[in-house]
Amino acid sequence: MMLTTEELKKEIRRMCDEKDAIILAHYYTIGDIQDIADFVGDSLALARKAAETDAKVMVMCGVHFMAETCKLLSPDKIVLCPDLAAGCSLADSCKAEDLKKFKEEHPGYQVISYVNTTAAVKALTDVVVTSGNAKKVVDQLPKDAKLIFGPDYNLGNYINEVTGRKMLLWNGGCHVHERFSVSKILELKQQYPDAVVMAHLECKAPVLAAAEVKGSTATMLNYAQQSDKKQFIVATEAGILHEMQRTCPDKEFIPVPPEISESGLECSCNECNYMKLNTLEKVYNCLKTMSPQIEVDAEIAEQAVKPINRMLELS
Predict the structure, then answer these.
(1) What's the whole-model pTM score?
(2) pLDDT tens digit string along 82-139?
(3) Which conformational region is residue 290 in: left (phi greater than 0), alpha (psi within -120 to 50 degrees), or beta?
(4) What gap in Å lies between CA 18 and CA 20, rounded to an integer?
(5) Quick one: the chain helix, strand, coil %, rounded to 5?
(6) Cβ contact 27:46 at 8 Å
């Protein structure tokens, strides 16, 4: 018998109580997932929560690398991933074997890896960063340090610009944020002249140049909550609009559409197909069967957790 949405939500919460489980959800997941989560946040906030929770089980509703990060920070906990196919185009753009070769070609360089990477890449990394803390972490490294930054080229380029660094940049990108364009923002700005333009740091430089607020999802959310403005044009994955609207019901949030969608047709918002693989049914099933569970090779885990802990210390 098929359960209704409300029945699924009730059963999920019942099983969480029964199994001492918490649900962590990224801002880019669907609204129904965010509504039943114990904690909703960006990558940095989710990592912090994973490191400090007392729960025996974590259900990570996001993408695969986030579930890996939870397991690295809490190796004694059971970490469930509702759909193992929930990958990340940015993580896919930097393979561990390619980074290893690049490091060998640049001796003496420290590696700064964006959190959107696999555990194997993190194991080759000196310090991990998120879009929310990248500048803060880089600012604390020696001025003469030779640095490799990857895999997000746009974020690395922005950090170089605001810190005066000359980090070597990996040429990777997020398939969602790469699709935003200045022309779409300008069209919306004509339509909503009083709106504040906000853009994620994974967007290309021209898009960031057109934005008044640049930062992580958490930065944009906090700005919207504290601002006196009533309209916001938002250039990031459209899932964040659920939390923005929930916490700011009297304000209007306008998603920037992609230049061209993956189907080749224009659409009204820009979504991550990987994040949207998380559904209530899959959360229900993974709690019911306690699978699929995330495991990380012990040797890789031992190395991969070090740059994450260093990030948490520096931020």
Answers:
(1) 0.90
(2) 999 999 999 999 999 999 999 999 999 999 999 999 999 999 999 999 999 999 999 9
(3) left
(4) 6
(5) 45, 15, 40
(6) no
